[in-house]
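TEACHING EXERCISE
Course module: macromolecular assemblies
Task: Read the component lines below, then compare them to the predicted structure of the full complex.
Student: A.B.
Group: 4
Components provided:
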Amino acid sequence: MQSRLVYMDHGATTPVRPEVYDYMKPYFSELYGNPSSLHAFGRKVRQAVEEARKKTAAAIGANPEEIYFTAGGTESNNIALRGTARKRAKPGHVITSSIEHHAVLDVCHDLEKEGHRVTFLPVDRYGRIDPDAVKKAIEKDTFIISIMAANNEIGTLQPIREIGAIAREYGVLFHTDAVQVVGQLPLDVNTINADFLSLSAHKFNGPKGIGALFMKKGAKIDPLYRGGSQEGKIRPGTENVPGIIGLGKALEVAVSEISEKKSKIETLRDRLIEGLSALGDVVLNGHPVERLPGNVNVSFKYIEGESVLLSFDMEGIFASSGSACSSGSLEPSHVLSAIGLDHATAHGSVRFSLGFGNSEEDVDYVLEKAPPIVERLRSMSPTYHAR
Amino acid sequence: MQSRLVYMDHGATTPVRPEVYDYMKPYFSELYGNPSSLHAFGRKVRQAVEEARKKTAAAIGANPEEIYFTAGGTESNNIALRGTARKRAKPGHVITSSIEHHAVLDVCHDLEKEGHRVTFLPVDRYGRIDPDAVKKAIEKDTFIISIMAANNEIGTLQPIREIGAIAREYGVLFHTDAVQVVGQLPLDVNTINADFLSLSAHKFNGPKGIGALFMKKGAKIDPLYRGGSQEGKIRPGTENVPGIIGLGKALEVAVSEISEKKSKIETLRDRLIEGLSALGDVVLNGHPVERLPGNVNVSFKYIEGESVLLSFDMEGIFASSGSACSSGSLEPSHVLSAIGLDHATAHGSVRFSLGFGNSEEDVDYVLEKAPPIVERLRSMSPTYHAR
Amino acid sequence: MYSEKVMEHFNNPRNVGELNDADAIGETGSFKCGDTMKLYIKVKDDRIEDIKFQTYGCGAAIASSSMLTEMVKGKTIEEALKINNQDVANELGGLPPMKLHCSNLAADALQDALANYRLKQQS
Amino acid sequence: MYSEKVMEHFNNPRNVGELNDADAIGETGSFKCGDTMKLYIKVKDDRIEDIKFQTYGCGAAIASSSMLTEMVKGKTIEEALKINNQDVANELGGLPPMKLHCSNLAADALQDALANYRLKQQS
Ligand SMILES: Cc1ncc(COP(=O)(O)O)c(C=O)c1O
Ligand SMILES: Cc1ncc(COP(=O)(O)O)c(C=O)c1O
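Instructor-supplied answer key:
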């Protein structure tokens, strides 16, 4: 029935690339030693883990001792924010944005409950944060600024370089949730003056369930979990060795191809945006230029996102509506609300996220299937007829 | 040079069994969808995740809705203890033992800093906790009792059934760190009346970096991490899908062979204990009968554990000294101190932990290599000559 | 997520459209999820002779709308008055818990249409 | 973890044993890790003619003991007095940071032996 399967949900997760998988493979059943073990078998695994740490560090301009492996982007965000908050003798002030991922936003809400104050900065209609607003929001006891490198839903890139400079100027810690950017765009922790940076392997063709937190030398946190002395006690527990090996390799590969991949994916992205816009009453959400190479987020007016998704799904096209994480919710996403979309437009939003493996043919296939889908749903819609 | 490689460190970690690995394999690069995604590709993965949850639940007599996947035993312990503590309006009292894993012990120390009171129960010379002591320790505001099912260093099994009954009688929550027992011995959450139970896949021939927390229906915690709505918000973040699939399968396989494996491994264990004891001045640590099927923990008098390990290592025999996690420490382990070993005896302790794949030949090989190793080190030891 | 029956109705919804000569129109909207529905009925001898719908909404909302029109067509007004959202969900082979409220939409629109019809009769 | 040289000395330690006709004996123990060492020296014409050791301890402790005896043998007392734990660690090609204190053991035992020798000479 389906002539083609087109995965355009790379913002949600990505496949492990074959060469990455091959690299991880021996660590399941052959080199399975515990890296904390004293014996030769454990020491060999320890070496591989440290090799992966070096690769990860190199990819973002960090030192290996500044990389702590975690279970993913969510954990990295939680450790950075709650860890710095816990370190304080008394509650303080946090600056973040209103369009962060829930793994930042909800931690901040929780910090508020614990007595901290949080400023959630607004964004413009493209989803951009104004660095000046960050500067103005700084208070005497502001201890951390957490601004994402790029938004996962609408793909808008943030001026993290400027924000990092402000953080340094005022002596405030700077954390960036770079889960959507690492492996997609060049990024250097020194250039952006990050004290903390979160990344997650499954967003750059590495395995799920493994991430890393960059924590600048000298930065201090009070870890959330207690246990063994792994990962400098920042993240205790037997290391997810195959995951770590996979993360290191995936990042090495991704970074080595970054400029080539970027221009290829951007070309596909723009072709898709153009084709969808031609349908009429389709609006692009997010910034027209300052956006992730693979992100296409559009609102189909008069119809609802889930119906659109289901219809594409039936044609073998896999996309998402808002972020996968919030799919359980009925409310339109906080990001689409923050950029000022009305309820109906927000509800009609669909994200196509392109990545490694997508081709021109994939885009053409989507553009071939889109018109009848949109037409059919609009024909059923009372708001379309009443327009 | 080495005629054989003998891995006897299954207490630290185990290899992923081939059939488990094969089962996980498609979820890296083929069925890589995000289980939270709406599309068919994500829904298929969701199904597999729920299948794994059912398997995990079935293995310990739980309902699937009572299983929450985590990143390992450490995280499960942290969530159970800190999560129940955070739920309280004011500090309370916790009962645990002095021989818990650091992932319980150190959380408890941290809870003390936050105003809670903790009773660390002593153990007898075999490492057993007295259920009566648990009962006596209960105070008005005791909110949780956390006692491990078996100790990871000396292998002693705890009377968790009795302790669970006491917890129920007094209306106190009961958590058991069953990381060393799940998959090795029959265990049912109903029989032991557990409200929380921690398990970790890499201890039963599943992958590293994945574990589960059983949380009884109705039990409530305040989760540590915030983010997406995965795992009932107990543990947000994109699911480690291959890990979850591997955990479910590994546990299913382990439980299906449990009685067969148990008697095989116990036979090997007893043969090893007997053979090592015959060397003279070798003491068995832990309980002679109530112990994990695969655990052999002995102290070689007059010589130091690390030297013994290194010597075995050179013969291709991989064992450990105390727990892998605390290998960074110079102090003798808290467990060996708790059972009353003097400094020197504690320092001479070595753990051989047998598991899937070990054979009679492996045991014979260890018993062949042990005498010259022990003899050589003793010949160098001033304390041996002064005895 | 959705049953086969839901998907079947979503893909091939029955009775989509408007009725120019409708005897009554029902309208409803969910503030929560933004879904809206418009229901047209044609009544003859106290029986719902024809029915059509327009729906803006998710898969569950569209399928519920379609299902409802099938259930109602040919029924007497009295019979139609008894149909509630649970009946619609049941006929569809169940809906995911968080989507249950979407079947409200269809049942509510029906009740609205029937009420409007009565009002018109009385005036 | 350990350098090849450490492992080589651990496996084939030089000068293990006792000297029945020792001119002095040095002893030391680390309270921290429980390691203990006994060092026997035979001195002729102010030169350490023979040296033997017994050590209870980890790989680093045994290797340091062996290394120290090699470094000391044939040296004058004055030269021997200058040897410290860092020298021993360096000769071994380095030790893991947390094992550095194990090389103290050997250097301390030497100093103890030399002090004992002096005392004996003076008495
Ligand atoms: C911007 C952003 N931050 C954090 C996360 C969470 O990462 P993970 O699901 O690996 O925990 C995601 C992805 O879901 C994301 O897109
Ligand atoms: C009894 C016990 N609890 C907890 C843990 C921690 O498990 P993990 O390393 O998977 O986090 C271990 C193993 O290291 C253990 O043996």
